[in-house]
Every structure is written in C-alpha cells, then in structure tokens.
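Q: what sequence does this backbone want?
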C-alpha cells in the first residue's frame, strides 16, 4: 500500500493570495508611526516605503530562483540545507518553531483578540482565549485539507484588498474637508532627518513586509511550483508595495503629519477624521478581518517546514506523517497549533519573539549568499533566473546583515539573548545527528 502524499492544490491565485495575505496583517492599519516619526517628511516617508518594497522584491526574487531550482516543502529550510548543510536548515526550523514562526502566530492572533475586544467586552484573559480559539480554528481548517486552507486564505485576502481599495478611494474622495481643517493647520513644515533616521525607518519598513517568503514552504502542494511560486512572489510583493504607498498617501492627505507620527491606530484615526466615530469602528473591523487572514496564511505555511525536517530525519518521524484522508502534515499542524497556543496563553511570546525576530534576517542574508553558491552546482536546473544577478542577491544580503547589525547595536543585551536562543539549536542538532547514526538499521527497509 502506497503512503499518502501531499495534494498539489495551490495554483497561482492561491499562491499570490498567500504572499499578499501573510504580508498585510495589522501593521499598515495600526502603526506606520515608526517610519513617520523617524523620517517626518512626505518625500522621506514615500522613499522609505518604496525602497522597503524594492528590497523585499529583491528577497522575493532570490527565493523565486531558489524555489525554481528546489521546489520542495520547507522552502527556506531546504535552500539553507542545500547551500550550507543540514545544520543550518535545522537551526532555521529550530528558531521557527520555538520563537520566530510560532511567535508571530501568537502575536498576530493576540492583535486579533484585542480588536475583537473593540466589539465585545474582553479582559486580558478573554483576549487570550479569543486568540487561542482563532489558532485552534485555523489549525483545524488546515488539518482538513490544503484546499480548505488556501480557499480560506484567498477569500480573506480578496476581501482585504477590496477594503484597502475602498480606504484609498474614500479617503481621497471625502478626506479633503478633513485635510483642510486639520491637515494644513497642523502642518509641521519641513523637518530635518539624517541618514541614521532613514536607516531606522527602513528597518521598520522591511519588518512591515515580513512573511513574503512563506509561500515557498508549500512547494510540494503547489501546481507547477517552478513557475507558480516565482510569479506569485513577484506579483504579490509589487501589489503589497503599491497598497502600502497608497495607504500612506491617504493617511498623509487626511491627517497632519505629526498625528500620523504619534498614532498607534492611524487607519482608525483617519477614518474618524473623515466619517466621525463610526469610521474607527469600521477600521477596527478591518483589522480583525486582516489579522485573521494573516494568521490563516501563517498557520498554513509553517507545518511544511517541520514536515520536511522530519522527512530528513531532523525531527521526530511522526511529525512527517501525511494524513491518509486529508493529505496534510496533520501532526505537524497540531504541533504548531499547540505550541503557538501555549505562547499566547502564557504571554511568553512577547519576550521570545521581540528578542529573536531580528535573527530571521541572518538566515535571509545567508539564503541570498546560498543562491550564489548553488549557482555553481551543475545538478540543479532552474526555470527562473534573476536578471540582476549577482547584484540583486548581494544587495539583499547586505541589507539583511545591516538590519542585524542595527539591532545588535541598538539593544545589545536582548540581541545576544535572542541569538543565544537560536544557537541553542546547534548542540541539539549534533546530539540528534549522533543519535540518528547510532540507531540500528531498520530490518524492514531494503538493503
């Protein structure tokens, strides 16, 4: 009897929806203040968002070529494993499970719970309960089949894009009065900023584009992945960049620049300025909708890395099993859902995630260098090649390492703690590798 395999149910619209839906979460509706506060001029703000989008596109192009050469489950994990060895792939999966990926699920689910609290009376325990319920529900949907998960993700992304278009259209159509009343009166004039401020704004902008790489995790469930994934990465990243720049244009048209810089709910403040208090409620509903869709995509992607690790012998073999009926890595889905729920319930994701999230960019930089190394392998064929090679991967790698240097310089103690948590995976990997080689051969396997 043949073993069950993953279904190839993800096509170009679904893959593009994954890229867009995982990038656009809550940050663009809630807090662009980090960038506006650092670079307080309209031209500087637009430049930060544009360059952040371009650098994200460079990263997407790097992963696009790698995905066309290595269309395997796990995406970044497989790229790092092939370029540098299984130890680095293991470290990526280790950091993903304990902090990076599970932490972002917990963080966005908690934002979802807090904005549900705008409509329902919830204390902190209630917010956590709603966040855990969202994780459990979305894990269940993805457990029942990749088609269910991708259809849900596509529907939420489509709704999210329609809402963004509505904000842009209504903001420019009806925001003129608000702009005349408070925008011009509150104009701060031309503020000064330096290269260091611009760099800090770029770091915030690049983090707002996070999640673009996750579509590569599902390569073995994607139809014609060598072509579909590169196209989805490029189209999705460009679409998000356009949306981000247009939304910031609306915010700056409706609100004074200093209000945008100070606001932690800028979309709601802009809606209130145009339509009154009801606008803020509508924006809170949009954040609920958007964060739920973002969690859906992230929950869908992550278990494929743990499935690939288990298949490679770097994780418990049961984590790599495929459900005989639903054709999903069901146990990896349950594992991720359980740990993400623990992080929400205990609130421990805050300390872990904020300390470790920057280390993701170490792996991204190494991934770009890995592309250059893998270009030398004659056994790897690819259907897509970066037009600006080698400058695109080199620029992206340099930017990724610059983010890491900035984080370490700005918060040395927390950065070292976060890096130490990631590096704890090295002794675990060596112990696991030694134990695997010491196991007696399976007598049921062929010679």
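A:
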């Amino acid at each position: 009897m043949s073993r069950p395999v993953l279904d190839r149910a993800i096509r170009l619209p679904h893959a593009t929806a994954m890229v867009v839906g995982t990038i656009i979460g809550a940050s663009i509706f809630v807090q662009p203040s980090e960038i506006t506060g650092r670079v307080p001029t309209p031209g500087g703000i637009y430049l930060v968002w544009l360059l952040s989008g371009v650098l994200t596109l460079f990263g997407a192009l790097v992963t696009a070529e790698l995905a066309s050469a290595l269309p395997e489950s796990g995406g970044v994990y497989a790229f790092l494993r092939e370029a540098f060895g299984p130890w680095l792939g293991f470290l990526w999966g280790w950091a993903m499970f304990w902090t990076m990926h599970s932490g972002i699920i917990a963080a966005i689910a908690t934002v979802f719970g807090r904005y549900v609290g705008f409509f329902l009376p919830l204390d902190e325990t209630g917010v956590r309960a709603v966040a855990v319920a969202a994780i459990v529900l979305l894990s269940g949907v993805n457990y029942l089949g990749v088609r269910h998960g991708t259809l849900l993700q596509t529907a939420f992304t489509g709704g999210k894009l329609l809402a963004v278009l509505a904000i842009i259209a209504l903001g420019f159509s009806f925001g003129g009065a608000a702009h005349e009343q408070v925008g011009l009166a509150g104009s701060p004039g031309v503020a000064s900023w330096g290269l260091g401020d611009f760099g800090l704004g770029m770091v915030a902008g690049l983090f707002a584009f996070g999640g673009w790489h996750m579509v590569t995790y599902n390569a073995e469930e994607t139809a014609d992945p060598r072509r579909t994934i590169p196209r989805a990465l490029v189209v999705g990243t460009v679409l998000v960049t356009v949306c981000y720049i247009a939304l910031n244009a609306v915010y700056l048209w409706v609100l004074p620049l200093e209000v945008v810089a100070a606001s932690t709910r800028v979309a709601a403040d802009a809606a209130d300025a145009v339509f009154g208090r009801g606008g803020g409620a509508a924006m809170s509903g949009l954040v609920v909708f958007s964060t739920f869709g973002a969690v859906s995509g992230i929950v869908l992607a992550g278990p494929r890395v743990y499935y690939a690790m288990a298949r490679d012998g770097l994780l418990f073999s049961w984590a790599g099993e495929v459900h005989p009926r639903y054709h999903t890595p069901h146990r990896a889905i349950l594992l991720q859902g359980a740990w993400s729920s623990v992080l929400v319930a205990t609130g421990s994701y805050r300390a872990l995630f904020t300390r470790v999230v920057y280390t993701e960019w170490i792996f991204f930089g190494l991934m770009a260098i890995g592309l250059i190394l893998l270009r030398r392998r004659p056994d790897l064929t690819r259907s897509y090649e970066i037009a600006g090679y080698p400058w695109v991967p080199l620029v992206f790698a340099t930017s990724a390492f610059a983010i890491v240097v900035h984080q370490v310089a700005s918060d040395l103690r927390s950065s070292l703690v976060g890096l130490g948590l990631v590096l704890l995976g090295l002794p675990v990997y060596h112990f696991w590798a030694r134990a695997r080689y010491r196991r007696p051969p399976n007598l049921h396997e062929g010679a």
